[in-house]
Specification:
Blueprint: E1 5-8, H1 13-24, E2 30-33, H2 40-48, E3 56-58, E4 63-65, H3 69-82
C-alpha cells in the first residue's frame, strides 16, 4: 500500500496529472474524492489549514495543495530511497555435480 494520498475533486486536471506522475514513477497513490459526502470533514480540515485548491497531497513527511511537480519529485525520491532493495539471489552450491 502506498504512503501517498491524493485528495481529488471532480473533473480536476491537476489531480489527474498528479496521480499520473506518481503512477508513472511506480508509486500509485491512494486516491480519495473530496466531493464524497463521507469526506466532508477532511475537506473542512484542508480548507481550515489554508489550502484552497485540489489536489491535496499527503505523504508521511509533507502535505501540499495544487499541482507541484517539485514536491512530487521530492516525494518520489524519498519513496525510492525508502523502498527495500530487490533481493539478489546467488546460485546455490548445494547441488552435487555428477561426472
Amino acid at each position: 500500500m502506498s504512503n501517498i494520498t491524493v485528495w481529488t475533486a471532480p473533473q480536476c486536471g491537476k489531480c489527474e496529472s498528479t496521480i499520473s506522475f506518481f503512477k508513472g514513477a511506480g508509486f500509485p497513490p491512494n486516491i480519495k474524492d473530496l466531493s464524497a459526502p463521507e469526506n466532508l470533514d477532511k475537506l473542512k480540515e484542508i480548507k481550515a489549514a489554508g489550502h484552497s485548491q485540489a489536489p491535496y497531497v499527503e505523504t508521511p513527511t509533507d502535505s501540499w495543495s495544487g499541482l507541484r511537480p517539485d514536491k512530487i519529485a521530492q516525494t518520489i525520491a524519498v519513496e525510492r530511497a525508502a523502498a527495500p532493495s530487490p533481493a539478489v539471489h546467488s546460485p546455490s552450491h548445494s547441488q552435487e555435480l555428477s561426472a
